[in-house]
Amino acid sequence: MLKTVGIHHITAMVNDAQRNIDFYAGVLGLRLVKKTINFDRPEVYHLYFGNDSGQPGTVITFFPWAHQFKGRIGTGQVGVTSYIIPENSFSFWEDRLQSFGIRFVKTKRFNETYLSFQDPDGLEIELVQRPNGPVNEWNVNGVGPEVAIRGFAGATLLSAKPHMTADVLENVLGLTCFGQEENFLRFQSEGELGNTIDIKLSPSVRGLMGAGTVHHLAWRAKDENEHQKWRERLVEKDYYPTDILDRNYFQALYFHEEGGILFEIATDPPGFTVDEPQIDLGKNLMLPSWLESKREELENTLPPVEVRVLKGEKR
């Protein structure tokens, strides 16, 4: 049986590109690993943030478009994105969030404590201490390897049909049911990162796509051969996947599960060093070959952005 080892990346919608960079790179200390464009709408950036190398299982990506309407988090969406931080680093992150005026609460689920807060567009984020995951060697703006976010812990899904979504996780994607606690049903995969998926069982409002919502969640396929097998499997099970699409840094296919959530399956290779060396990741606007002839036009259209050092509020 095919099994995904976990989350490859998560993609969300936001309004302002510079504000997005300021928060994820400046506050959370993630590395901007790729500055490119939305291949379907090249007048919009596609920004990727992850660990020092942009390893699968660490990358959150964004379509920042100033003119899109505010969305509403609800059914048919990823409700919460969770990140792993090293053990004994909660106090650092509490102090850091407070220094930037970011409100947070502590919650518990499946015997783990989560630090929960929102990004500037309203996306729900959690930090959880776990020993697993490779050390993130990126060091920026006061966030070093000893406290840096290591990658995804997982995600919480808001499904219109929770038990149908559970069936997809278990019997299509190959995750294992860990158990139920109150309003949450937990599944786990075998990877180090992005391996914990909770389905919220209590009702929610219907999700509306827009700024401040997750667009899709992508699962890992180890190579193109396995990717093709995933597509064949989805066709056999009547999930009507898209054709395999070239996203330059990975191959992708998409399908909606019956709870309304858009899933992607993406290949681990070739990765983000296919068009620039690791030392230069995120520094320049990178375009696919078929859009290189429009570079000047796109650079004049896209707003100027940069990774900059931020100072927390004085207290």
Task: Report on the architecture of this protein.
This protein is of the alpha+beta class. It has a single domain (7-301), classed as Roll (2,3-Dihydroxybiphenyl 1,2-Dioxygenase, domain 1). Helix content is 16%, strand content 35%. The chain has five helices and 16 strands. The protein has helices at residues 17-27, 90-99, 162-171, 224-236, 295-301; strands at residues 7-14, 31-38, 41-50, 59-64, 77-85, 105-109, 112-118, 124-129, 151-158, 176-181, 184-188, 196-200, 213-221, 245-246, 250-256, 262-270. The radius of gyration is 19 Å and the shape is globular. The protein starts with 6 loop residues before the first strand and ends in a 14-residue tail after the last helix.
The low-confidence runs, each spanning 5 or more residues with pLDDT under 50, are none
Output the CATH topology: 2,3-Dihydroxybiphenyl 1,2-Dioxygenase, domain 1
Discrete helix count: 5
Overall form = globular
Concise description?
It contains five helices and 16 strands. By secondary structure, the protein is of the alpha+beta class.
Which features characterize this protein?
315 residues, alpha+beta, 2,3-Dihydroxybiphenyl 1,2-Dioxygenase, domain 1, eight-stranded mixed beta sheet, 5 helices, 16% helix, globular, Ring-cleaving dioxygenase
